[in-house]
Specification:
five-stranded mixed beta sheet; two-stranded antiparallel sheet; about 30% helix; alpha+beta; globular; 60s Ribosomal Protein L30, Chain: A
């Protein structure tokens, strides 16, 4: 069996970051039946938060989009760990739930979370098309700009 998703990542020049370890009392992912749930991820690379602050204050929609894109890579990194390095077990991305650290008057949460959605489709193709939520939050842990979790249908 070829590993087409990892090959596609290579073609795109995308490298998955190391999966982030939990920062509190939870696990990074859970498999229940044929569903894989990832805990909320943020825009972290090599243990460093790459995007902190609030959208509508010190961060632009474009910066939020890039933070969301990096967060999606972290979601896929957790999925990769959960699936023993075989992302081809993903049947589809079912749902993303995105939180955006923003000012009360900021209303472009969907544009920010598009960074994650667009990347899922770019990497997984039609299997990456998902339902989602994009919600504003008054604050997020570590003042990170976004937090997103994912649900995937997988082959057992």
């Amino acid at each position: 069996m070829t590993d087409s998703i990892h090959s596609h990542l290579k073609e795109l020049g995308i490298e998955l970051p190391e999966p982030m370890q939990p920062v509190a009392t939870y696990v990074p992912y859970v498999i229940s039946g044929n569903l894989l749930y990832t805990s909320g991820q943020g825009p972290v690379l090599n243990g460093e938060f790459k995007s902190v602050g609030k959208l509508g204050d010190n961060l632009t929609v474009e910066q939020g989009y890039e933070a969301s894109r990096l967060t999606a890579l972290n979601i896929l990194s957790q999925a990769n760990a959960a699936l023993d390095g075989n992302l081809d077990r993903i049947v589809r991305c079912v749902k993303l739930f995105g939180l955006v650290n923003c000012t009360p008057d900021f209303t472009d949460q969907p544009k920010v979370i598009n960074g994650a959605s667009d990347l899922m489709v770019k990497i997984l193709g039609d299997k990456g098309k998902h339902c989602r939520a994009a919600v504003g939050a008054p604050s997020l842990p570590f003042d990170t700009s976004v937090e997103i979790d994912g649900i995937f249908e997988i082959l057992l």
